[in-house]
Structure formats: structure tokens, C-alpha cells
Amino acid sequence: MMATASDQQTADLASGKDHTGENFPVASAILKREHRAPIMAFYRFARAADDIADHPTAPAPDKLARLHAMRLGVTGRGDEPQALTLHRVMAERGLDARHANDLLDAFEHDVTVRRYADWDSLIAYCRLSAMPVGRYVLDVHGEDRATWAASDALCAALQIINHLQDCGKDYRAIDRVYIPTEMLAAHGARVEDLGAEAASPALRATIVTLAERTRGLLATSAGFSAMIRDRRLAAEVAIIQKLAESLTERLLTRDPLSERVHHGKLEAAWLAAGAALGSLVRGRPR
Known about the structure:
Distance between the termini: 39 Å
Largest sheet: none
Radius of gyration: 19 Å
Number of helices: 14
Helix content: 55-70%
Strand content: under 5%
Structural class: mainly alpha
Shape: globular
Oligomer: single chain
């Protein structure tokens, strides 16, 4: 198949990241084989769109044009490859395109918005940028949409954890700050503090406050895995919950500007094994 102009433009903005570099498992081998491909199609679509929105030098109008091309692809038009692949997957399985379009709304937001005023504004962003991912995975598995509220809380927590881990890098590379300005001001911190080699006491206090709010989200999602009928998906969700809880505790005590917050591979594997075992003893995978 010949490469199209969209293929080349998407490649030009690609970060080189893939699912193996994420904090949390994506379509892991725990899941049934038939569910992994549609989840990976959604991930590759999201990865391509995220790379466009986060590119440090591409002009905003070009980014918005590329994201519009991806939106056309979701409907089966245009020639953006990752979006067209996702369109075919969704059509074959009768999946809702709303989740993909919500994500594109979030990425368009990333191009034009660099600051968030308060917690509610941040959660409103997560409603577009994170919650659709969990909802799509649940739809792929045919799960009851009554699970969405717990899924939404977990997905928002994952998004905020990622924001906090990368808060210094995001500020320096693309001048984007997800820590609410209201929280910064309440502790006497400044946005410019994110450019330092280590967090000031005021910035550390802000990060701790946001991590505590994130811990509240994880308390809401703590029973999520038990709601899921598919035991394999329940096990993966239990793993994600455990990793998220561990990272949140680290953010309460570690400075993401000067200290490592991410899990090492062996540590993540150990946490995952314990969480998966605890989930699977509830019943054999179906």
C-alpha cells in the first residue's frame, strides 16, 4: 500500500512512544485475545492524536488541521490511517464513536488551553481526555454501563498522576500546566516554580494537595474491579488500581521535579502480580 500525505504528516509529528512506555498496562496478555486488537486500535489512535497535540514546535493551526483529519477518519472519511483503522474496528463491533470524538475534543483543547483554573476545570478536562478510554474498554468487553462512574474516577486519577509526574517537563517543553492555578495560589506557589530543578516548599504543598484529591478518586474506584463480569478485565483493572495507588503515595512524599516517581519494571511486575492474584481468586477467568 502506498503511503499517503496523511501517513507522512502523522509520522512527522510522532513522538516514538508506544504502549510499552505507559505507566499502566494497555491491552495486556491478561485480556482475552479477541479484545486486545480493538483496544490497541484505540490506543494507537489516541497516541497519534496526543503526539500531534503535544508536538513542541508544530504551529497550532497545523495541529488543529491534523486533528480535524483524524476526526474525519473516525467517520470513515479522509485518509488518516490510525483513525480509519479505528473506524473499521468500531463499525465491525458496533462500538460507539463518541469515545473517540471526546478524545479529539480533549486534544484540540490541549492545543488551545495551557492552564486550568481549579479542580472542577481539571476534572472537566479529564472527562474528555481520560474517561472515554475506560468507557471504550468496557464497551469492547460488553460490560454494563453502570460501571462507568467507577471507571471514570479511576481514569481521572490515572490522568492526574501522569500530569503530576510530568509537571516539570510539560511546563518546560510545551508551557502547559495541569496543576490548577487556584491550588498553586492557595499555597503561595507560582507557575514558574515548575521550571526549577527541585520543587519549592509551596509547590510541594500544592502537589501533595492534588495527590490527596487523587487519592480520593482512587477511593471511589476501589470497588471497580469487583463490578466487572469479565474476570480477565477485572484482573487488569485491579492491577491498574494498585499501580495508581502506589504512584499516588509516592507523589505524597517525592518531588517529581527532582526524584523518580515512576515504577521500575520489576517493581511494577511485583505489584501487578499481587493485584492480579487477589482479583482472580474471586473466580476463574471466563
